């Protein structure tokens, strides 16, 4: 069982850029011995979402995670439609600054997303995956907002991580993949706005 994180960016604007938040999530999963991987889609390349999705196997994936920007919400929506064709039992989550502070609105806009991870995602994503793998109710996880019977439910927030040194160092998969000469780090940790 795998958690697959999908980074979405632009070849023109984000080439050689890391999405550090997703790399931190991947490192946290691996530190707990949870299978995870990070793949990256450049929306302005010649590759369609369908072609990209067909490059990977989806039968072992149980959770797909996104960290959308406001400019990539529609691309995330298109991904979920395509992925449901390949594995109808996939669970979709999103996190990051664009959805953390507007979880209800994100769930209303992204009709196929199952849940939003609010705030820092490392502990929440690991707990979520443990619950899924152990066939326990993932809806009891702290720090998430989700749909249930047509209603939006917001669970209690998780406390911020006091000592960031407790977290494993980011899996630098994007840096390794691109062999770039420059790196732009995108993160919002600690941002209250």
List the helices and strands and how they pair.
Layout: E1 2-9, H1 11-14, E2 17-18, H2 20-31, E3 36-42, H3 49-54, E4 61-66, H4 73-86, E5 91-95, H5 97-100, H6 103-109, E6 115-117, H7 122-133, E7 144-148, E8 151-154, H8 173-178, E9 184-185
Parallel strand pairs: 1-3, 1-4, 2-9, 4-5, 5-6
Antiparallel strand pairs: 6-7, 7-8
Helix pairs in contact: 2-7
Give a description of the structure.
34% of the residues lie in helices and 22% in strands. It contains eight helices and nine strands. Helix 4 (73-86) links the parallel strand 4 (61-66) and strand 5. The longest helix is centred in the middle third of the chain and has 14 residues, at 73-86. The relative contact order is 0.20. The model has no long low-confidence stretch (mean pLDDT 89).
Give a concise summary:
The protein is of the alpha/beta class and 193 residues long.
């Amino acid at each position: 069982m795998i958690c697959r994180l999908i980074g979405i960016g632009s070849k023109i604007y984000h080439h050689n850029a890391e999405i550090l938040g997703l790399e931190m999530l991947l490192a946290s999963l691996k530190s707990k011995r949870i299978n995870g991987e990070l793949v990256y889609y450049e929306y302005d390349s010649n590759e369609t979402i369908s072609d990209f999705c067909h490059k990977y196997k989806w039968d072992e994936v149980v959770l797909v995670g996104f960290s959308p920007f406001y400019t990539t919400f529609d691309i995330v929506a298109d991904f979920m439609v395509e992925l449901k064709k390949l594995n109808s039992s996939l669970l979709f989550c999103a996190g990051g600054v664009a959805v953390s502070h507007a979880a209800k609105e994100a769930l209303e806009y992204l009709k196929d997303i199952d849940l939003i991870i609010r705030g820092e995602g490392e502990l929440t994503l690991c707990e979520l995956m443990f619950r899924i793998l152990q066939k326990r109710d993932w809806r009891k996880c702290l720090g998430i907002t989700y749909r249930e019977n047509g209603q939006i439910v917001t669970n209690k927030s998780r406390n911020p991580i006091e000592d960031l040194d407790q977290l494993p160092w980011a899996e630098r998969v994007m840096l390794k993949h691109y062999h770039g000469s420059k790196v732009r780090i995108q993160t919002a940790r600690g941002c209250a706005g």
